From TrEMBL:
<dbReference type="Pfam" id="PF02775">
    <property type="entry name" value="TPP_enzyme_C"/>
</dbReference>
<dbReference type="InterPro" id="IPR029035">
    <property type="entry name" value="DHS-like_NAD/FAD-binding_dom"/>
</dbReference>
<dbReference type="Pfam" id="PF00205">
    <property type="entry name" value="TPP_enzyme_M"/>
</dbReference>
<dbReference type="InterPro" id="IPR012001">
    <property type="entry name" value="Thiamin_PyroP_enz_TPP-bd_dom"/>
</dbReference>
<keyword id="KW-0786">Thiamine pyrophosphate</keyword>
<feature type="domain" description="Thiamine pyrophosphate enzyme central">
    <location>
        <begin position="192"/>
        <end position="327"/>
    </location>
</feature>
<protein>
    <submittedName>
        <fullName>Acetolactate synthase</fullName>
    </submittedName>
</protein>
<comment type="similarity">
    <text>Belongs to the TPP enzyme family.</text>
</comment>
<dbReference type="InterPro" id="IPR011766">
    <property type="entry name" value="TPP_enzyme_TPP-bd"/>
</dbReference>
<dbReference type="InterPro" id="IPR045229">
    <property type="entry name" value="TPP_enz"/>
</dbReference>
<dbReference type="InterPro" id="IPR000399">
    <property type="entry name" value="TPP-bd_CS"/>
</dbReference>
<dbReference type="Pfam" id="PF02776">
    <property type="entry name" value="TPP_enzyme_N"/>
</dbReference>
<feature type="domain" description="Thiamine pyrophosphate enzyme N-terminal TPP-binding">
    <location>
        <begin position="2"/>
        <end position="107"/>
    </location>
</feature>
<dbReference type="InterPro" id="IPR029061">
    <property type="entry name" value="THDP-binding"/>
</dbReference>
<feature type="domain" description="Thiamine pyrophosphate enzyme TPP-binding">
    <location>
        <begin position="382"/>
        <end position="526"/>
    </location>
</feature>
<dbReference type="InterPro" id="IPR012000">
    <property type="entry name" value="Thiamin_PyroP_enz_cen_dom"/>
</dbReference>
Length: 545
């Protein structure tokens, strides 16, 4: 006879899970201790949200299931933001929360997760693809199998299970848990319609979203663009889907983009969209009368397909990589060029700003040249994120991670830690802002304690920059956007056990980054940037009708 917690830990190990992230407490203790007994490394966070982000970073880095857990009540509610973030980014994460014993339901208890107070199973339902309270041990195998199949299925995303204390410790004579096998999902009939539509178009355009990176379809994107001689632009979240200097890459569009990418959006009569919801962050400069005649959209999630643009739409359901591989297999080896006028590379970048103090744009340009080819850059949300979308030169496709859709501040800090735990040999860098850092920057201590040498670059302009600039432009007010007592990121980082550097000039930054790369320890580089530098976010105004 073995406990439900034993079967859970064994299933996770059989799925290839090596690390789990969370904060321990009474109600989740039996499950967590069994995970440790089965050889899974426990990374204790400093806040449950960051542990959830770390599990997402682990899932993104490995392609396997990420696991985040918390105790009942507030421990579980603190995970909700990370669950919604994972859902927005199609990341397979299993969120586990504790619960008082089923036999004690109806008795008021500390950190209640029942329907009498904070019903976690209900709360997680809209933030995940599946959420369930497991009330009996003999139901556990079926429910866990179902949850895993959804998390790792074609759409990929987070699931949540609420485990009562007595269910975790319940003994079962046997428990069958099905481990799902990858299953390609192709829309073959619709894929066969793509080439005729492209050949009929005058100015077809590929729009690459973050789904390309989530699917690992960078090589397929490159081959498709070259085979059809099509220009490629990227959404803010799709940055890095193709190398920055590829001859067919015409830069980012939308918020954080360059004017050239938006010009292509307004000139093209067919969009081939790969893994993008086409949110306001992408289409903010598309004029209503310039919607393309034809839209081809490859995406596992049909929620917004055909509902954003006034275009005839062909939806290709399923994994981008699988569908592009099939599409490439049926294309003629040397079709005629179908994108006349777009085939020549265009210098899409603009000149760096000239400022009296340190320019973040210049830092990003310099950092692009200094980091090794094999690295991963996690970028937090805020004006610094859109500066990075515009200015960072991605050499290795898939190495730039940024979420412009759910856009929760501080997510990159935890994600970088989770990715580093999964791939200790890879250089992992996180760009974050002072606002993000004051929310979840204590996770630096997690990295220090577990010897996960991430390089954190903190952009300190002493204000909530994106909110300040946007409010100032639209309302003339800046209420609540200035830090009257600015943070000292160096002292904060050192207090948490990290090595820290401060840079007020570009040469100081170069020296600090060079030292941090050699250090092989957790390092924080504080950038005191020019507060008046204009972020590439001011044109986020959408007119779709």
């Amino acid at each position: 006879m073995r406990t439900v917690a034993d079967y859970l830990a064994e299933a996770l190990r059989n799925l290839g899970v090596t690390h789990v992230f969370g904060i321990i407490g009474k109600s989740i203790c039996p499950a967590l201790l069994k995970m440790v007994d089965h050889g899974l490394e426990f990374i204790p966070g400093r806040h449950e949200a960051s542990s959830g982000f770390a599990a997402s970073g682990y899932a993104l880095q490995t392609g396997r299931l990420g696991v985040a857990f918390a105790t009942s009540g507030p421990g579980g509610t603190n995970l909700l933001t990370a669950a919604a973030h994972a859902k927005a980014n199609n990341l397979p994460v299993l969120f586990l929360t504790g619960h008082q014993s089923i036999q004690e339901l109806g008795i008021p208890q500390c950190q209640d997760s029942s329907s009498y107070l904070a019903d976690l199973a209900e709360m997680f339902r809209p933030a995940t693809l599946f959420s369930k309270l497991i009330e009996r041990g003999d139901h556990f195998g079926t429910i866990l199998s179902h949850a895993i199949s959804i998390a790792l299925g074609p759409s990929k995303g987070p699931v949540h299970l609420c485990l009562p204390f007595d269910v975790q410790t319940e003994q079962l004579p046997a428990c069958h848990i099905a481990i799902p096998e990858p299953e390609p999902l192709l829309s073959i009939s619709n894929l066969n319609r793509i080439l005729p539509l492209i050949e009929q178009a005058q100015h077809p355009l590929i729009i690459a979203g973050k789904g390309v990176t989530r699917a690992g379809a960078h090589e397929e994107l490159r081959q498709l663009a070259e085979t059809l001689n099509l220009p490629v632009i990227t959404t803010p979240g799709g940055k890095g889907a193709i190398a920055w200097d590829h001859a067919l890459y015409h830069g980012p569009c939308g918020v954080g983009g360059f004017p050239h990418g938006d010009e292509l959006l307004n000139q093209s009569d067919l969009y081939l969209v790969l893994g993008s919801r086409l949110s306001d962050m992408t289409l903010c400069n598309l004029k209503p009368h310039n919607h393309p005649a034809q839209l081809i959209q490859i995406d596992t999630d049909p929620t917004f397909v055909g509902k954003i643009l006034q275009s005839k739409t062909l939806h290709i359901t399923g994994d981008i990589k699988d569908n592009l591989q099939y599409l490439l297999s049926i294309l003629p080896p040397k079709p005629a060029a179908v994108s006349e006028g777009f085939s020549q590379p265009v210098p899409y970048q603009s000149r760096l700003p000239e400022l009296p103090h340190l320019s973040l744009a210049a830092v990003l340009d310099r950092m692009s040249d200094m980091l090794p080819y094999d690295h991963k850059l996690f970028v937090d949300d805020g004006s610094h994120g859109f500066h990075a979308v515009q200015r960072y030169k991605v050499k290795k496709p898939g190495s730039f991670i940024f979420d412009a859709y759910f856009a929760c501040m501080g997510n990159a800090i935890g994600m970088a830690i989770g990715a580093k735990a999964a791939a200790p040999e890879e250089t992992v860098v996180c760009i974050t802002g002072d606002g993000c850092f004051m929310m979840l920057g204590t996770e630096i201590n997690t990295a220090v304690c577990k010897n996960l040498p991430v390089i954190f670059i903190v952009v300190n302009n002493k204000q909530l920059d994106m909110a300040l600039k946007g409010m100032e432009k639209t309302t003339g007010r800046i209420d609540g956007t200035l830090y009257e007592v600015p943070m000292d990121a160096v002292q904060f980082a050192e207090a948490l056990g990290a090595t820290a550097y401060r840079a007020e000039t570009l040469p100081q930054f170069s020296t600090a980054l060079e030292a941090a790369l050699k250090l092989k320890q957790v390092a924080v580089i504080e950038l005191l940037t020019d507060r008046d530098e204009i972020p590439p976010t001011a044109h986020r105004v959408v007119h779709l009708n």
